[in-house]
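Exam revision sheet. Question 4 asks you to relate a sequence to its structure. Input first:
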Amino acid sequence: MPLKIDLALNAKDLMPRIQRLWDLSADKILDIERSWPEKRGTPVFTANGTYTTRGWTEWTQGFQYGAALLQFDATGDRRFIELGRSKTIQRMAPHVSHVGVHDHGFNNISTYGNLHRLMREGRIEANDEERHFYELALKVSGAVQAARWTAIEGGLGFIYSFNGPHSLFIDTMRSLRSLIVAWQLGHVLMGERDTAVCLLERAVMHAEVTSRFNVYFGKGRDHYDVAGRVAHESLFNVKDGGYRCPSSQQGFSPFTTWTRGLAWAVCGFSELLEFLLELNDGTRIGSRSLSQVIEGFLGAARATARFYVENTCTDGVPYWDTGAPLLWRIQDALEKPAQPFNEWEPVDSSAAAIAAQGLIRLSNVELALGKRAASRQLQKAGLTIARTLFSDPYLSQSTAHQGLLLHSVYHRPNGWDHVARKQRVPNGESSMWGDYHLRELALLIQRQATQQRPLKFYI
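Answer key, structure tokens:
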């Protein structure tokens, strides 16, 4: 049974819950700032309600400081712009030039990008020197991210993950924002013999390769080819550029769907389409027209959105993987609201927060294309999921818990997530990316409900 979409729900209906969310969020941001020892690195997820760290890559620091910027955006509380701005200046420079990760869109658009956006919107005072500082950081970040490139057969290529040049992650769809903002600022990546690489072309090529190899379309590619299913990782032979097989780092298997990876696809393709639809109709990207590029990505966005809606629980919160091995022990798991305190498999609320934003953004795309019925369905689906997340048992209302969005999981196969006493699976904990995307979702809906400028990452 798919998500039970409330077709009567409107953005304004969620405003009381959103106001409550910001009230809770403020105290939690300040609590983390007071208690977190910076020498420990970056907070990643909670254990017993207190943020802790886990070294893999430093991909969550932008969410930590970006959360303060979203808090200011939503409430106008100056404490948070000062916190987010000062910490970005003090702590984020290594992320701008980080050559070892695919996470630039997470870290740098959430900090430098939000600050630049707030200044463009007139939400903070104009200052040319400060603006140029943000722009330089965003230009360098986009170019550094784009340089992490593997060429494959057919003249294509992709931004490779921290696993190495053979590895294409679905997550990176949301890091393409760094390339796009840098391109809008007039920047290019300079290569050997002063070759200028177009950052927009590179972003679009990465998305095309992701659509071709990480997203399934029900065309018999393998025995598990179900339309809209997503592989977390695709592996390539770096010697000849040939595709080898699907893989998964954080999902159960290459042939099941890790639901946070699915959510990255829904959100990443949808916001890329929002951006592309605002370009001049005569724009050409490489050898193709803008309309050809848009048409290709529409297929990926629609397929993954449909698969999410059809493979989540009735309240919009999914289990961590569609093929989680003990999911069968939960009777009619997808025929009822998610059960975070079950004995067998964890849910992942962070996937729901990311996917809900993606569904709303895809709704905007469909509306721009004149598809009013599809737009309405997607909008209501996103709002229905948001209503779930802005309420018990997902919104963390205890001052003793530093997290905002409960029942997020990080890496189930590695067993990294905290399991509380008398529980058999992770539950009741939060993550930096889950909290950030819950705030971003709330701000997206709040701006819509109050008829403010839409929340968009690009210029």
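Marking note for examiners. Residues 11 and 383 are 7 Å apart (CA to CA).
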